[in-house]
Design brief:
- The complex is a heterodimer of chains A (82) and B (724).
- Chain A is α+β, with helices and mostly antiparallel strands.
- Helix content of chain A is 21%, strand content 39%.
- In chain A, a hairpin with a 2-residue loop joins strand 4 and strand 5.
- Chain B has 724 residues and is an alpha/beta fold.
- Among the domains of chain B are: 165 residues, 3-Layer(aba) Sandwich (Rossmann fold), CATH 3.40.50.300; 96 residues, Helix Hairpins (Orthogonal Bundle), CATH 1.10.287; 48 residues.
- Chain B contains 31 helices and ten strands.
- In chain B, helix 3 packs across helix 11 and helix 13 packs antiparallel against helix 14.
- The longest helix of chain B has 42 residues.
- Chain B starts with a strand and ends with a helix.
- The chains are: A alpha+beta (82), B alpha/beta (724).
- Strand 5 of chain A pairs antiparallel with strand 10 of chain B.
């Protein structure tokens, strides 16, 4: 199921399908390892639900929700995750 | 003896600075890159018959031209041509950290890979085939543990071996970027090589890649050959169009994809073996369950920040008082040795008080930075930013702004000097500037005696309520003004928050000490010189012109008269009476002298304007003095109301006098409280602000804050007297 990171819950796993951010924002996301094909897992949300913390490539990254909206992911179903 | 220049580079949190500290120890010094606030750290180490001069480049994730840190790293590599780069990587996160490594290799500079945190690799049950990694990247790799010093000697041996083998020769790595990009790159390389376009600085393929990435810094440099630069830009534009039409992507993104692809393929070839059963819940995850928990997280954070704050200011108090005593003794000594007169007054009131004022902040700054270094190195600071960001972002600030605000006095009684310095942890330039400009609004420890004096004089019954309202007002104003600045003068998109949450670690003692000492020494050096000059200037403003000889003669003759009476009189009661009259005469002379000085005249001259906010000339002088240091306000008011410093219950009697002064009333008191809270930061803070941003912004704060304070004070006073 293709959706944005905002729609994922904590502990959901997904694969990045595309990143629509250009310029500074896009560069920053790519430098941190967010490129299509990257496996991510939501590890938490801040007390006010924003920013969101993701795990990818063995480290944890935080993003604001409006920044995460640039990242489209293919959510893995609970069955696949097992 | 041979000299080698070595650069340490790597991602933030790779342990680069820890390794640098382990290797160079205390043989290091910190400076600044010209024109920007990024630190330049250098150190030396002796190994065999080689002297290694090591430069610790700022941590960065990439070599684009997008942050100051990245730009600086690039400039050092290209312009200073170090013999080699030691690229420190976190071996548990090779997949991401090698992204920077690839870019060094593409630049062609000799690289040694320091695979740091190998202890974590072993603990996690991972294994890394170092020989295979080294072979596929074609660069030496050494395993290290920066915290324990493991691998240090091997690394140093390797540095010497590689620098003599390579002899400074650059050999760029060429990665294939696929069928769309490669032909364009080849064409651009051809043009670059044929024309020798920037080839003395960068390899041709690197320049071509940077043009495809739309690198502004390189395009700027290319302008000296406009024709060739234009040709390259055309090719890049065509490719950009082609990619967006056929692939729905752009060259920059494709280049990044291929780099990660290259790394992924490389690591898959048996370089990294993950444990069969992944130990999913490590200490960091468990700690984060509590420390960033919805309810517990913010609660624990508040408790921690509050404790830290209390500890800083109560611990800092003792050495601060000790320093004050020492400077007091020095001043007494100087008064005895030097003959009375302008020289004595200059040395005592100008120099010793000025230097003492600067140095008395030192214990506070040291303790504060030990705490901050601890919070930062442990990884907790990133969590604070993570939890607070949502709130601070509304006002155009960043989650990390919370620290500078609190230290500056967000919990009443802080100090803006370490507060502004703490804004360093902000990596986003606009948010950092807005934080620095608004943090001095907080009720610092030096403003509090002024508030207590005025509350004591007019609102003695509501002390806690008013103190609390003052703190709330400060936060409100800081956030509102930050929002105002961020939507006008410091306008611009908020810098992406995208930030790493590093694993929790115990900070190393050496790291904390070095970090703290650097900050403190920098403060002493920078602040010391400027503040001494300003302190002398203010002393002159409050001393000159001296009283006319006529006035002096009048006071002297009156004093002589009283002295004579005193020597003749034997009655105890009347002796006391005469002694107090002499005291009063001295005070009156001090007051007359102050009124006659340039500062006094300025205070009088400003009265027609300041009366709108309810301030008389005495208040004006005190407020002018308060720009030097807020502590001066109460003592200057004392002099202006001719209350001697020797009197024990100074503030109570001063409060009574102020309460009795017909020009003061409740509205004027509230107006003065607001003005003192918000007006120009003290000079120490201004100097530190200039150091963290620029003199332009520091002067802006001086004028802007005073304007805001005066407008608000006037508004309050005018409404107040109409309601009363």
């Amino acid at each position: 199921m293709i959706c944005s990171i905002r729609q994922l819950g904590v502990h959901d796993k997904a694969t990045v399908t595309s990143i629509t951010a250009a310029g500074e924002m896009g560069r920053r996301l790519r430098d941190m390892g967010l490129v299509p094909g990257t496996e991510i897992e939501i590890v938490g949300r801040a007390p006010l639900k924003d920013p969101v913390a993701l795990r990818l490539r063995g480290f944890t990254l935080t993003l604001r929700n409006n920044e995460a909206d640039f990242i489209h992911v293919d959510k893995r179903d609970a069955l696949d995750a097992e | 003896m041979q000299n080698n220049m070595i650069a340490f580079a790597g991602n933030p949190n790779a342990g680069k600075t820890t390794l640098f500290n382990t290797i160079t120890g205390s043989r290091q010094h910190v400076g600044n890159y010209p024109g920007i606030t990024v630190e330049r750290k250098e150190g030396t180490v002796q190994h065999g018959d080689h002297q290694l001069n090591i430069i610790d480049l700022p941590g960065c994730y990439s070599l684009t031209a997008y942050t100051q840190e990245e730009l600086v790293s690039r400039q050092v590599l290209v312009d200073e041509r170090p013999d080699l780069v030691v690229n420190v990587v976190d071996a548990t996160k090779l997949e991401r950290h090698l992204y920077l490594t690839i870019q060094f290799l593409e630049l062609g500079i000799p690289v040694i890979l320091a695979l740091n945190m190998m202890d974590d690799v072993r603990n996690k049950g991972m294994s890394i085939d170092i020989a295979a990694l080294s072979q596929s990247l074609n660069c030496p790799a050494i395993s290290t543990v920066a915290r324990s010093g493991e691998g240090k000697d091997q690394l140093l041996d390797q540095i010497i071996e590689t620098s003599s083998n390579r002899a400074g020769k650059w050999s760029p790595l060429a990665i294939s970027y696929g069928t769309d990009i490669d032909p364009a790159l080849a064409k651009m390389e051809q043009i670059i090589n044929d024309n020798g376009f920037l080839t003395e600085r960068y390899p041709a393929r690197w320049t071509a890649i940077k043009y495809l990435e739309g690198d502004e810094n390189l395009q700027e440099q290319g302008k000296q050959f406009p024709d060739i630069s234009q040709q390259l830009i055309e090719i890049a534009d065509n490719l950009h169009e082609h990619c967006s039409k056929t692939l729905n992507s752009f060259p920059e993104a494709i280049i990044a994809d291929y780099r990660y692809g290259f790394i992924h393929a490389l690591l898959r070839k048996g370089v990294v073996t993950m444990p069969s059963v992944e130990n999913r819940l490590d200490i960091t995850d468990n700690l984060d369950k509590v420390l960033t928990h919805k309810v517990l997280g913010p609660t624990l954070m508040m408790a921690l920040l509050y404790t830290m704050f209390q500890v800083t200011f109560s611990l800092g108090d003792y050495p601060m008082q000790l320093l004050e005593t020492i400077f007091g003794l020095l001043a007494d000594g100087a008064s005895q040795i030097l003959p009375a007169g302008h020289l004595q007054s200059l040395i005592v009131s100008g120099v010793i008080d000025g230097v003492g004022g600067v140095l008395s902040f030192v214990p506070l700054i040291m303790i504060m930075f030990i705490m901050i270094a601890f919070l930062e190195d442990s990884g907790y600071m990133a969590r604070v930013a993570y939890m607070m960001d949502k709130i601070f972002r509304i006002f155009g600030l960043h989650g990390s702004s919370v620290m500078p605000f609190i230290i500056s006095g967000g919990i009443a009684g802080g100090c803006a000097v370490p507060g502004v310095m703490a804004a360093r942890t902000l990596r986003s330039p606009r948010e950092k500037l807005a934080t620095i400009l608004t943090a001095p609004f907080m009720p610092c420890g030096a403003k509090i005696p002024v508030f207590l004096l005025l509350i004591g004089a007019f609102f003695a019954d509501h002390r806690p309520m008013i103190m609390f309202s003052i703190t709330l007002t400060a936060w409100f104003m800081a956030l509102i003004v930050a929002k105002l600045l961020r939507s006008t003068l410091i306008k611009g998109e908020s810098t992406p928050f995208v930030m790493e949450l590093p694993p929790y670690r115990w900070p190393t003692l050496q790291g904390v000490i070095i970090h703290t000492w650097e900050r403190t020494w920098e403060y002493i050096k920078k602040a010391g010189t400027v503040i001494l000059a300003i302190s002398i200037l203010l002393w002159a403003a409050m001393t000159f012109p001296s009283q006319s000889s006529d006035t002096l003669a009048t006071f002297d003759s009156q004093r002589q008269q009283l002295m004579q009476q005193l020597s003749q009189d034997n009655d105890k009661q009347s002796t006391q009476h005469i002694a107090s009259e002499i005291e009063q005469l001295n005070q009156q002379q001090n007051m007359e002298a102050l009124k006659n000085s340039y500062a006094g005249r300025l205070g009088l001259a400003l009265e027609p304007i300041s009366q709108y906010a309810g301030f008389n000339w005495r208040t004006n002088i005190a407020l002018i003095g308060g720009v030097a240091a807020k502590e001066v306000i109460v003592s200057t008011l004392g002099t202006a109301y001719s209350i001697g410093e020797s009197e024990a219950e100074e503030s109570t009697s001063l409060a009574t006098r102020i309460a009795k002064d017909p020009t003061w009333n409740k509205s004027a008191a509230v107006s003065a409280i607001i003005f003192v809270l918000l007006y120009a930061p003290c000079f120490v803070t201004i100097v530190v602000m200039a150091r963290e941003s620029s003199w332009k912004w520091a002067c802006f704060a001086l004028i802007f804050n005073t304007t805001i304070a005066f407008s608000l004070a006037t508004l309050i006073y005018q409404i107040g007297i109409r309601l009363a």
